[in-house]
Design brief:
This protein is an alpha/beta fold. The chain contains 9 helices and 8 strands. The strands form 2 sheets. A 5-stranded parallel β-sheet has the order 2-6-1-7-8, sandwiched between helices. Strands 3-4-5 form a 3-stranded antiparallel β-sheet, with helices on one face. The chain binds 2'-deoxycytidine-5'-monophosphate (DC).
Length: about 230
């Protein structure tokens, strides 16, 4: 069967990572989390003291950064200039910084080029905010995953709790609103639903149900492609 490019976009906490990882496992595809790349650039900016408003410096920094994503059982490891930052990129501070870094068109240009290289051969499930709209506008299957802000905040808060991050639920909901606003209002590649994306609302669905649905859509698409 043809190896597809599957794009999964949606707001923070909609369940993209869980879905993308599971679909990749079920299809035998490579999973690519593009948010991790923006987070890695943010970590480097924070560490090197570059202002998160300095567009030119951030663009230069992104251009001088090597990000490697290595598949591992059930996910991916993230390397920033050779250092494993898989855990370091998952703090609330880095999440906020990443959404600021992601506003800079020059940074996006650098990372989008990397993402296109990584997915060009197909057989990938790539998740982010602009995969179906900008990175792979011709992706074989585009999913736009949503859920209510309250459910998204609760999911994110549980993740933080498991890791021992000191952040409460109301603050997590505020952060979700802040990041939604920044992701949707930026002028360069805002979070939008591609016209031909399938919208899936995961508010009342179990993760496995969503994954099975997407795999069904993918297999239908691959079979249709094979006969044309
Ligand atoms: O999915 P995430 O929370 O790890 O993403 C971190 C930030 O990066 C998020 O605020 C939006 C941004 N991002 C983006 O602008 N485009 C992508 N393709 C992926 C993430």
């Amino acid at each position: 069967m043809r190896k597809l490019i599957i794009a999964i976009d949606g707001p923070v906490g909609s369940g993209k990572s869980t879905l993308a990882r599971r679909v990749a496992a079920l299809m035998g595809y490579v999973y690519i989390d593009t948010g991790a790349m923006y987070r890695a650039v943010a970590v480097k900016a924070l560490r090197s003291g570059v202002s998160l408003d300095a567009a030119d410096e951030l663009t230069a920094l992104a251009g001088n950064t090597r990000i490697d994503l290595q598949a591992q059982e059930g996910g991916q490891r993230v390397f920033l200039d050779g250092e494993d930052v898989t855990t370091a990129i998952r703090t609330p501070e880095v999440a906020q910084a990443a959404s600021k870094v992601a506003v800079v068109p020059g940074v996006r240009q650098v990372l989008v080029a990397e993402q296109r290289r990584a997915g060009a051969q197909g057989g990938v499930v790539m998740e982010g905010r602009d995969i179906g709209s900008v990175v792979f506008p011709d992706a074989d299957l585009k999913i736009f995953l949503t859920a209510s802000p309250e459910i998204r905040a609760e999911r994110r808060w549980r993740e933080h709790q498991q890791k021992g991050d000191a952040i409460d639920l109301p603050r997590t909901l505020e952060e979700i609103h802040e990041r939604d606003r920044r992701d949707q209002e930026r002028t360069s590649s805002p979070l939008v639903r591609a016209r031909d994306a399938v919208v899936v609302d995961s508010t009342a669905m179990e993760p496995e149900e969503v994954a099975r649905l997407v795999v069904l859509l993918a297999k239908t698409q691959a079979a249709a492609g094979a006969t044309t």
